[in-house]
Amino acid sequence: MKWVKRIAIVLAVLLIVPMAALLVLGHRKNAGVAQAAAEIDAPPDRVWSWIDDGDKLKQWVSWMVDVKYPDPQKTNGLGARRVLVMKDENNGGALMQIVSQYSEYAPPSRMTVDVRDTEGMFTGDETYRLTDLGNGRTRLEVRGRFHYSQWFANLMEPLITPQAEKKMAMDMAHLKRLAEAKAQLQ
Amino acid sequence: MKPPGWAQLVLWAVAGEKEAEFVAGDLHEEFLLLWADRGRSAGSRWYVRQVLRSAATLLGLRFRSGEAAHLLAAALVAVAMPLLLLDRLWSFVYSHIPLKDGLERAPGFWAANLVCVCACAALCGSLAHSLPRAAGVALAAAAGAACALWCSTATAPILYAGLVILAAPASSMAVFVWRRPR
Question: Which of the pair, B59 or B165, is modelled with greater confidence?
């Protein structure tokens, strides 16, 4: 009986305490919000094309394998939709489709897209804000806000969001390198 | 006059409870004779050679008696399963990143795995009632940890893999030694 008690205590420490901590952290003010910023040595209109053009998007967002347009006549602008196809190696290499619809479109300074995955795992929005710093430099800020539909994913949100933010910063660094290299070439 | 400690531990780990005492006793007697005759290093070399040469046979005997199978099954359930479940959990976390991420795990996740594997291995060690069993549990815990590392989705950093494979048997033995009546 004594050992059953001890095993129960170990299980409680290993399972219940982290779960309770996740539950509490899930209610913090910035839950589900990931943001990143970078200053790029390229003018805003050049940087804009890297976030607006599907082919260019594939070059700096890792694991993105395709960008499809449900309506080929309307590839950007308010209400336009694009489907981002991601290869998910953490899910056995399964292809995940994320529908992204423009809800704000003001080139070359501001863009907001509503995103949701086709399997109903999450919904959210992403805002890109470009500020002209002069001398051919741009400050790009990205802010994503996501809500996870599944209860377990929602519970894991305090672990998912920091990793999403880390990934966002890595992608931004990649974008900065590409945009600056291209700007230098031109 | 004692033979090398690690070789003794390997002997206790591979030999079954019934065989361990007899084999260890016989080897110790021979070791003492060689020590007196040819010196310490020759005696130690002979002891280590004997342990390594008989390890496979002793392990085979232990498997046939069913004892090793039970230990291995227990270690797999207690050490490998939590590690694999954690690996699935981290895969789930990374899968839910809206724009997806790589297979590399955050240091915090590796640390959580390490704490979990130590706790589970310690629990296994605390349930062992004799040295051969504790050593067997430690060996099986290391095997279970290695197995889980091999089956996991992410490629583990060398340092982490080494720590897990060493920490699992170490925690198991540490708890056994701590609990053993003096």
Answer: B165
CATH architecture, range A32-185: 2-Layer Sandwich (3.30)
Scanning B107-126 for CB atoms below 8 A from A yields 116, 119, 123, 126
- Residue where a domain terminates, one of B25, B48, B64: B64
The pLDDT assigned to A17 comes to 85
pLDDT digits (tens, 9 = 90+) for B18-56: 777 788 888 888 888 888 888 888 888 999 898 888 888
Structural domain count, chain B: 2
Domain range holding B109?
Answer: 67-179
Cα A1 from Cα B86, distance rounded (Å) = 28
A17 touches chain B (CB under 8 A): no
Evaluate if pTM is beyond 0.80: no
Q: Are residues B73 and B140 in the same domain?
A: yes
| Beta pairing class for A94-106 and A81-88 | antiparallel
Say which residues have a Cβ less than 8 Å from residue A100's Cβ, sequence separation at least 6.
A81, A82, A83, A84, A113, A114, A115, A126
